[in-house]
Structure prediction request, 357 residues.
Amino acid sequence: MRVDQFDFDLPNERIALRPARPRDAARMLVVRPQADPPLVDGGVRDLPDVLEPGDALVFNDTRVIPAQLEGTRLRGEISAGIGATLHMRTGPDRWKAFVRPAKKLQVGDDVLFEGFGTRLTAEVSEKADGGEVLLVFDRSGPALDEAIAAVGHIPLPPYIAQKRGEDEQDRQDYQTMFAEKDGAVAAPTAGLHFTSGLLQALEDRGIEHHRVTLHVGAGTFLPVKADKTEDHKMHAEWGEVSPETAEALAAVKARGNKVVSVGTTSLRILESAAVKTGRIAPFKGETSIFITPGYRFKVIDALMTNFHLPRSTLFMLVSALSGLETMRAAYAHAIDQEYRFYSYGDASLLFPDKDAV
Prediction:
């Protein structure tokens, strides 16, 4: 498909720079392609009433690390400023990273990162296309984690970072209440809407919740530069669906209830786990699944997600689920009704278009 089919105009003032407070006070647009009306305005707190007893929500338990590093390239007596965004750990002492400006780095260069009394150095071990390098650090394991926490910054999405700097509040706001496993460089933002009170209301309604892991990479920020979707390359991310979670969700499906993914990250790891078998299965490893219209969903029955960027892989994903024309209409409605967009914005609850999926 042509990438420009997924384009739309978004007024700048619709981009949220801070989350709703409290978190579950955000608005939620319910999209049911076959219903009349197909679009219903509501709030995140309506979720227990929209879902049925026996349904299951699936959350991503990844935790965002301070993966934005500012450093200095060292080559003999010549130095230059370098920015690096870590996006995938490949060993105890090494990370793949996107760097800027990439042309200043060569294989064998050393980069120094400093902050709060910590000096962390890394060697450029490999260099790939698109500004990606492999950094091998001077320490490993927990010692490296501690050093990154000291010198790094929370990697706010570019559309927020261009308008304001990261502050201490972001270290709380950009984590979900389910965050446990370090490794993401972007938050699974649909999970940001949940509070202990909302979770209790869902439990009281008889709605289950389960957890999977997908360490969201910096590739989620990269624009689709290709003219056709089939020419776009997705960067791999690491994820896991435990045997216990796979078994529990299979039971939900078997009794006729819905598996509702909270966020596109949970959806992608669940669908990755079902690629070979066509059903919910345990999974552990890397995935670069790219979901566009025409994809046949194997696991999820609904998706709760935020409002995404034009021409993005995530807008393509939601269009695959609920239909491109439905999603174009839903986003036009959301813009007209002043919904808040992107990572700190409002939510949508999307049901499948039976003609699209």
The mean pLDDT is 92. Residues 98 and 132 are 4 Å apart (CA to CA). The longest strand covers residues 78-91. The two ends are 16 Å apart (CA to CA).
